[in-house]
Amino acid sequence: MSGTMRIGDVLSKITVPALVLKADTSPEGRKANENAITDLKNVKLVHVDGTGHNLHHDDLERTIKEITEFLSAL
After folding, report:
1. Nearest to 20 by CA among 51, 54, 52, 43
2. Among 49, 52, 64, 74, which lies 20 to 30 A Cα-Cα from 58?
3. Which one, of 34, 13, 17, lies nearest residue 25 by Cα?
4. pLDDT tens per residue, range 21-56
């Protein structure tokens, strides 16, 4: 594999609870991300406002909060 990662329908193959943390994006980007997980029962999507690609650098406290809450609920 080289270049951009091609995920295709890989999310649909996730059978365990999964947390997807996404950087802040436009309303259209958020909608596209939400549409990508619409039928996925075990996937939780969280957009972290005000962050870029490196969520843990941009907002470590929020990143840890989301991960902790997700894992605590399992």
Report:
1. 43
2. 74
3. 34
4. 999 999 999 999 999 888 888 899 999 999 998 988
For residues 48 and 54, give the distance between their C-alpha atoms in angstroms, rounded to a whole number. 11
Name the residue among 21, 5, 33, 34 with its Cα closest to residue 66.
21
d(C-alpha 63, C-alpha 9), whole Å: 25
| CB 7, CB 33: distance < 8 Å | no
Please work out, in degrees rounded to the nearest 5, the angle formed at the alpha carbon of residue 8 by the alpha carbons of 37 and 72.
40
Domain ranges, ordered by start, for the chain: 15-72
Which among 57, 54, 65, 59 is positioned nearest to 19, based on CA atoms?
A: 65
Interior angle at CA 5, CA 23 and CA 46, nearest 5: 25
